[in-house]
Amino acid sequence: MTSGAALRLDGILLPADAVTKHAVCVRPAAADDCHHFWEWRNHPSARLVAFDQTPIPYDAHVPWFARKLDDPAARMLVVVGPEGRDIGYVRCDIAEGIGEISVGLAAEEQGKGYGPLALRAAAGWLLGDRALQRLRAYVRPGNERSLRAFECAGFVSSGNRVSMRGQDVHELVFERSS
């Protein structure tokens, strides 16, 4: 492919090298991913935008992570970057055909455009489960980077007013394509 080649992705014309240089995928998490999930979630940049901003002790995280891996209503995915390195996670808790999704990237990978790509990869993977019809995400006010990532990945505002932990939040949804 020549350097002038372009690809159309969701109606947006992108240079082909932009797509391949920034390609990400997801894989199911395994027990040995526990420490990475804990590091990503506990980084100050992640805690700043999390609903629960308190640090999570590692000895509390380990049994929680093991329960999530064994939970049939949970999906834990690792985001794999373009160089094959693990760069973040996507979590999904499923109830009544709806998956509540959250994403976190390693601090050094934030701001590189991986968020929307990770969310699209995860949505494709998650919605491959025919029992899952819709994904839902909640974003705190002021977390514009996350809001843009979800919107760029194809999530749209539900139009619902949602309150979580005493604050109004953005609710976004991603519907299965027919």
Describe the structure.
Helix 5 crosses helix 6. The chain is of the alpha+beta class and 178 residues long. It has one domain: Aminopeptidase (3-Layer(aba) Sandwich), CATH 3.40.630. About 8% of the residues have low confidence. It has six helices and ten strands. Strands 3, 4, 5, 6, 7, 8, 9 and 10 form an eight-stranded mixed sheet that branches.
Helix content: 25-40%
Largest sheet: 8 strands, mixed
- Summarize model confidence as the mean pLDDT: 83
**Percent of residues in beta strands:** 25-35%
Number of H/I helices: 6
CATH class assignment:
Alpha Beta
Proper CATH architecture: 3-Layer(aba) Sandwich
- DSSP strand tally: 10
How does the helix and strand content classify structurally? alpha+beta
Gap between N and C termini: 32 Å
